UniProtKB/TrEMBL annotation:
Basic and acidic residues bias locations: 11-20
Region (Disordered): 1-20
Listed PANTHER family: METAL-SULFUR CLUSTER BIOSYNTHESIS PROTEINS YUAD-RELATED (PTHR36930), MOSC DOMAIN-CONTAINING PROTEIN (PTHR36930:SF1)
The name this protein goes by in its record: MOSC domain-containing protein
Domain MOSC per the UniProt entry, residue ranges: 18-168
Lineage top rank: taxon: Bacteria
Length: 180
């Protein structure tokens, strides 16, 4: 399985959206250099309030560009970085990857997928009604989260738009992604 990096984003402030850049640097065990969510322990405000000593399993957020086309059909306009992701991808079914998948980004960076993003009300603050587009239920009533995946940095490096993404699946048995 292969994909492509469409855009990269970071913000040094705790803001919902992140501006896109020509490149970002991933730091082993920390996240995106210069991003407010980088660190070994949790940085998301709600998680810090609960327990600031938790490990940061949300160092790098990836979203598939295909989600933007899906929500566009429902009348929403979303561009890279606008949902707070660090890496926008194309050509990979991120949501179907098992926990522990390694994503090789560009020449040297490697992130390990830790779980699904659990979107919150801030998505509706960005565009009213968008949360229902990225969180729903399947025909059996199970919650379906589509707002991307979270990961930790295993090998640092620079990531740029146009970089290839190579998928390395973990050993079986595979574990389905759960919210982190």
């Amino acid at each position: 399985m292969h994909g492509t990096v469409v855009a990269v984003s970071r913000s040094g402030e705790h803001s919902f959206t992140k501006p896109t850049h020509d490149g970002i640097t991933l730091l082993t065990g920390l996240g995106v250099e210069g991003d407010a969510h980088a660190g070994t322990t949790v940085k998301h405000r709600s998680r810090v309030a609960r327990d600031p000593s938790q490990p940061n399993l949300r160092q790098v957020h990836l979203i598939h560009e295909e989600l933007f086309a899906e929500v566009a059909r429902a009348g929403f306009t979303v561009e890279p970085g606008r949902l707070g992701e660090n890496v926008t991808t194309r050509g990979l079914d991120l949501l179907a990857l098992p926990t522990g998948t390694l994503l090789h980004l560009g020449d040297s960076a490697i992130v390990e997928v830790t779980g699904l993003r659990n979107p919150c009300h801030q998505i509706d603050d960005f565009q009213a009604g968008l949360l229902k587009q990225v969180v729903g239920r399947d025909e059996d009533g199970n919650v379906v989260r589509k707002a991307g995946v979270m990961s930790v940095v295993r090998e640092g490096g620079t990531v740029r738009p146009g970089d290839p993404i190579k998928v390395e699946l973990p050993a079986e048995p595979h574990r389905a992604l759960a919210p982190v």
